[in-house]
Amino acid sequence: MSTASASDRPQSPSSGPIDPVALTQRLIRCPSVTPAEGGALDLLQSELEALGFVCRRLPFAEPGTEEVDNLYARLGTSAPNFCFAGHSDVVPTGALSDWSSDPFAGEIRDGVIFGRGAADMKGAIAAFVAATAAYLAEGGPRQGSISLLITGDEEGPSINGTRKVLEWLAEQGEILDACLVGEPTNPEALGEMVKIGRRGSVTGQLTVSGRQGHVAYPHLADNPVHRIARMVAALTGEPLDEGSDHFQPSSLQVSTLDVGNPASNVIPAEARATFNVRFNDLHDSAGVEAWVRRRLDAVGGAYDLSMRVSGESFLTPPGRLSEVIVAAVEGVTGSRPELSTTGGTSDARFIKDYCPVAEFGLVGRSMHQVDECSALEDLTTLTRIYRAVLEDFFR
Hints:
Largest sheet: 6 strands, mixed
Structural class: alpha+beta
Radius of gyration: 24 Å
Number of strands: 19
Order of helices and strands: HHEEEEEHEHEEEEEHEEEHEEHEHEEH
Number of helices: 9
Mean pLDDT: 95
Helix content: 25-40%
Distance between the termini: 12 Å
């Protein structure tokens, strides 16, 4: 590890302590429904610059996509560079009449803050900032850097967000040495679970063509419904695997089976099915597609299949980063968290190509739901955990 000069070392914040509850409330009040920035990144930039961070706003837009604004902020110039990563964008609210209060008001009732993003994941972002401010006020780190990578595209197509920022950082010669993503990882109570990997995800669109005809004369038609039913049975009748050391078994789930036939006396000309495969580290997306095609071919008949990959499975093997996070969680909460790979995809699937990455955040029970919320106590406890992570990592 290189020795940092005085100018390399992060400086103590010029402002006072940051209240994670108040900052969470201010972030919720920014209507940053993906891909809108909504003022959330402006607010974060202001808070981080007051702490001495150098901030870069990184808007990206591929042809045919909406522009997404992103923020990368770094304090210090020497290694190691510890990064907090997350997203300021949120999912739509749904019907406002279903909410007990304005989803962008950040209302506090009975020790709980309500609003879109309270759990996923503006609360964790506020804890990032509050923990960093507290750590800097205590004089740390003596060397190394702290950075934040905040995207506005995690809840959207994830094209112009974290992946593009990481590519830009690599082009600038910017290195991340470890990353903690603040996704809500805990099912029921803070301290239950640290994510060290995620299953891959691939969605299949299956179309089976036949020949339309009268149901009374099936020999003059070719019924695609019967064939697609056998194909679906072939895909779901046998599991891909029985799981691996750190992953549960892979799962194929059919989400829709469509014919669009309003007439009961007509054999349709086409049938369609959509399915999703969540696969573990025994497979990659190419292997999953080959597995699917083998089973469809065994049924026989013409079909068209397209597969869209959302992310590959990955694992950050238990090591220094997970040890630091587990120790911080246990030290603050008294609970030793499980190292898990459950759940959906996250932007950690991009970060894992650049540095060790793990995820720990708030309780996710209410994320994406009406009346999304987080306990105020959890916000202050998460801040203490993140501060302990920084202390241990830079010790």
